[in-house]
Design brief:
It contains 4 helices and 14 strands. Strands 6-7-11-10-9-12 form a 6-stranded antiparallel β-barrel. Strands 3-2-1-4 form a 4-stranded antiparallel sheet. Strands 5-8 form a two-stranded parallel ribbon.
Length: about 250
Amino acid sequence: VLRGGRRGREVDCGALDFGTKLWVELAETGDGGVDFGLRGGGDGYEGSGCQRGFGDAGAYAGRAADDEDVCVEELLGSTAAQTYLAFHHNAKLYKLSAVVSAMRPFSALEEANKLLFKQGTDDDFAVVAEKTIFHPQGGGQPSDEGVMTKGDDSVFRVSTVRMDAINDGQVLQFGRFDSSSANKFQGGDTVEQSIDVDKRLLYSRLHTAGHALGAAVRHFLEKEIPGFDELKASHFPDSASCEFQGSIEGK
């Protein structure tokens, strides 16, 4: 199976017995998609049957379309790591079983990713799962918090969630294990994700209220105040606010 980018389609290419190398030839279709064929290297042979490529030209496929040939291992390595955002498909999904793709100690993260979790210490880790219900921080809204558990002897408390600064489409769930946890997660482990529902609902309400306030102020003042604009908003509980540009004459 070959996978496209964020909005790509999975395409079953069948069980083709290629040789030592397998390549994907990509060509833009002109309608936002990419068609591709397969050919083997070494003692492999050319194969067909992949009629349609990556709908909407996902993140990697869009770039790869400029190349004549793309090694399928490189292609899969770039796209398979993207995290499936389960909360986009069901906002009321508060528990989810997911497979761990990777777990990295804070000290091993790239500098750009360390900056996403400034309070990180040597006791902290970043967990990546194939799918997640943890909403990352963004748009002025805090991230979800919660726990990941494996059986009864491993509890990982998620304190911050951010989009990876290096790997496109990957979600980093930062936190640390309880001191009572006998075993840490490993790649391939199935874990149970559970978010703090009360915080999720609070953040959602603050976010909605911020947009409602912004729309109301714009409706009443946009034509009354020269140079009016809504600059930014915060939906954090301790600093929820909207900032506007413009001067109202005092009377």
